[in-house]
Amino acid sequence: MKAAVPDFSEFPPGTVTEYTTLVCLACIFDIFTKQIGLAPRSAYSEIKRYLPTVDELTSRKAVRPFFDSEEKHPRCPYCDAAKRWHARLDTHCIEGGKTTDAPRRKLVKSLEKKRDQFAVMEVKSDRRRAFFDWLDTLRISLDLSDPEWLIGATKALLERREAKQDWDATFEGLRSIRPSARLEEGWEREGTRLFLSPALYNESLLVQYLLSRSHEHGGRTLAGRLTLIELIRRMRRGGYLEAHKISDTDQFEIFEKLVDEVAGSGNVKLYFIVDRRDFLDKVKSVYAAYA
Ligand SMILES: [Zn+2]
């Protein structure tokens, strides 16, 4: 019987990242029986307990026995095994913090009795890495060929900053986003326009730049296409560098510090919840065929 799917709807937007990978059980059985030399029965009980590492579950470049495929009937890239040998592992990563602690505890508690179906792993990370993971996930969810993505990216940044605000309502019917010198901090909605304080506006440009940058052409932002130098010039002019005590002259040093300002610094705990249900089902059926 399948347990109810864990519910992530109580977590604020931008605090949960999803990863999916396929694992080839033919490859795993091969490793356990041929390379390690276990009898099929012992291999089966070892494999049932097998828990991949966080890197294996979340890496953008899968290595044997893991692989990624968009195809409906993929074959293992290492041993050519057909679909019935593949198991899917879904992983959710929750960023630790004030806004996620309560729903996370509740969720983990609800999974306690299903410990072999759902594994929970805690990993110490830093805000910078968490920020780039967030950017990667955001890039996948946005359609960069539709100019509306600039508004979506700004919304995502604000959601990350102020999780409690109802941003769906704030962005409803919104036509444009502008900087406002009247605002020292924060934001203000007026009619169909959203005004951001200059610092917040510049940070949103930095996020847009990071999402869309390419080597030759810079990044696309609400303020048009910007190269790194133009972005830094803009932030210097707006007083952002001075306000954040960034006095470097090298553009890459400045860039690193700007990213620190937006990403936040220090450590953060990440909680990975691995859904092993499909894996366990498939290991069982594959073993039945194998034995
Ligand atoms: Zn394989």
Structural class: alpha+beta
The whole-angstrom Rg is 23 Å
Strand content: 15-25%
How many structural domains are formed by the residues?
2
> What is the succession of H and E elements?
EHHHEEHEHHHEEEHEEHHHEH
Write up what this structure looks like.
- With 291 residues, this protein is α+β, with helices and mostly antiparallel strands.
- The chain folds into 2 domains: 16-117 and 276-290, no CATH class; 131-263, no CATH class.
- It has 12 helices and 10 strands.
- The chain has helices at 25-35, 40-49, 54-58, 101-111, 127-141, 149-161, 167-171, 198-212, 228-237, 240-243, 251-263, 277-290, and strands at 16-24, 66-67, 86-95, 118-126, 176-179, 187-190, 193-196, 219-221, 224-226, 267-275.
- The strands form 3 sheets. A 5-stranded antiparallel sheet has the order 2-1-3-10-4. Strands 5-7-6 form a 3-stranded mixed sheet. The protein has a two-stranded antiparallel ribbon with strand order 8-9.
- The longest helix has 15 residues, at 127-141.
- The radius of gyration is 23 Å and the shape is elongated.
- The chain binds zinc ion (ZN).
- Zinc ion is lined by residues 24, 26-27, 65, 76, 78-79, 81.
What would you say about this model in short?
With 291 residues, the protein is α+β, with helices and mostly antiparallel strands.
